[in-house]
Amino acid sequence: MWRVADVVSTQTETATARTLGLRIHGLMSSVAGQHVDIRLTAADGYTAVRSYSIGRSGSGDMIEVTVDELPDGEVSPYLVENVQVGDQLEVRGPVGGWFVWREENPRPVQLIAGGSGVVPLMAMIRAHEESASTSAFHLLYSVRSPETMIYRDELAERAASSSKLAVEYVYTRAVPEGWDRSPKRLDETTLLEHILPASDAPDVFVCGQTIFVETVADWLVAAGYETSTIRTERYGGTGGTS
Amino acid sequence: MNDDILARPDNPIPHLDGNVAAGVLMELFGTDISSALGRCENCAAVRVLADTVVYVDAPGLVIRCRSCSAVLMRVVECPDRYWVDLSGLSNLQIEKPAPTG
Amino acid sequence: MGLISSGFGGRRRDDNPALPPGQYETDGFPVLTAGPAPDIETDQWEFFIATETGQRHRWSWDEFMALPQDDVTTDIHCVTSWSKFGTSWRGVSLDTLFDEVETAFEFTMAHSYGGYTTNVPLEDLLGGKAWLAWEFDGEPLERAHGGPARLLVPHLYFWKSAKWVRGLQMLSDDEPGFWESNGYHMYGDPWREERYS
User: Fold this and answer.
1) Nearest CB to B16; choose among A16, A185, A210
2) How confident is the model at residue A71 (pLDDT cuts 50, 70, 90)?
């Protein structure tokens, strides 16, 4: 089920994150929220496989993945530092049809991102903006600092110009100039203050590291959000060995 | 990366969820079954496979029930075959794709 | 073989003769686990050896600590291809634990808190080849790495060194444990690259 993908573009997002534009041979379309598995093979046959979220989906054979380099990663440093336009990669998918948003969904949507967990949620934002859907989209983005924020400019522009998207930020280590709050870890009160209320019955998507996702999900359930409306995707620090 | 809400050093949390297993499961089932409902043989909980507790940092993939931690599935990829143990799942409900045209 | 990624894997190349075939040296100590780390306090902990007669030898943590301890420096080899040289451990030799045990059976199944199992022939636990280890690198063994105590059988792939071990059951025949029953080799000699069944 592995297919070849051509790297058709690269774009630096932050000091550690880069977006790769991939044309996957034979792909018909992708859905916002899905991910792909990327397999690297060394000359001696050693292989490593990791999953990366699609940041931009759509019809056709093109996707974008945004990769955040892990300091002791096996695959992410190669994707962020070595891969060039014209290279080819082996890709499986897109897969992950549970953690997706589709245009036909009429519900308001609350997106909650921890760090690089923003990637699949950005795919949802972009798909939503380009569609005829008029549902309300809110993003709460918890991030260390303005410099580590992925899609910073685009999020600011979209939030400013779109009537159906609102973005709120929680800075946990360093805040932008002129920010009226000091840096602070995300806590239950801050979370609930910055998201659509449970009474709106939004569909909620939470993505980030496991502990971020599970802590946030617990707070949501305790605050009365229906578990059936909460979908989660966990990122790990070491990826996989498959 | 956002390690501002982190596991305590004495309590690492190395697990992910069923989303990460979607690719391997597609190899085995021929289709993306992350939205499929699975019933735990041990505790009878029925949940989507995307919502399972998955350990990827092991000699194989281990998928556990989020309600009771029992092993639902094990997958080992060998050079020439997959070993798959489904005995922890008493059933799966896999939706058919919507009819086309 | 898949499409080769030029430049990938370069830093892993190693022609070290101390490396078994197909292995790569690591500086870190990757945590591999099949399930949640059990949380066992030493005052709840117990280690057992159960024989074919129904006899069950038991050691509490204090009894375990009172036994002669070995300091062990050894290389370890994980089936997922990483090897780590010169790791240092402290623990009780299985020879010491088996000193009081009478058995005619030649195989064992190691059982861990949390349900993990792995099978090891008795002769691979004796003769100075295996320990019940509770200290790594001079510090009490971290929970993520199998603390309070794990089996240490460094001449076999490291999945045999059961984390959170709670006892050994003597067996008349070799029976497959958790990974051995799902694709992995019954014995697991890294030097003969016995990874899969």
Assistant:
1) A210
2) confident
**Cα(B16)–Cα(B52) distance, integer angstroms:** 8
Answer whether residue B48 is part of any domain. Answer: yes
Chain C neighbours, 3+ Cβ pairs < 8 A: A, B
Q: What average pLDDT does chain A have?
A: 94
Structural domain boundaries of chain C? Answer: 51-184
Residue B31 lies in a domain: yes
C 147-176 near A (Cβ less than 8 A): none
**SS3 (DSSP) at B72:** strand
Tell me whether A211 touches chain C (CB under 8 Å).
no
Cβ–Cβ below 8 Å for C2 and A2:
yes
CB A7 within 8 A of CB A85: yes
Domains of chain A: 3-95 (2.40.30.10), 109-235 (3.40.50.80)
Question: If contacts are CB pairs under 8 Å, which of residues 55-84 in chain A contact chain B?
Answer: 68, 70
Residues A25-59 as b or e (16 or more Cβ within 10 Å = b):
eebeebbbbbbbbbbbbbeeebbbbbbbbbbbbbe
Which architecture, in CATH terms, is C51-184?
Alpha-Beta Complex (3.90)
* Residues C74, C104, C186, C191, CA torsion sign: positive
Chain A residues in contact with B61 (beta carbon < 8 A): 240, 242
Is B5's CB within 8 Å of A97's CB?
no
Of residues A123, A132, A125, A126, the one with CA closest to residue A109: A125
pTM, two decimals, is 0.93
Which residues in chain B are closer than 8 Å to C142, comparing Cβ atoms? Answer: 10
Phi, psi of C121 (to 5 degrees): -60, 145
- Would the pLDDT of A155 be above 50? yes
Find the CB nearest C144 among B12, B55, B74: B12
Interface predicted TM-score (ipTM) over 0.90:
yes
C79, pLDDT greater than 70? yes
The range of the structural domain enclosing residue B56 comes to 16-93
A124-143 pLDDT per residue, tens: 999 999 999 999 999 999 99
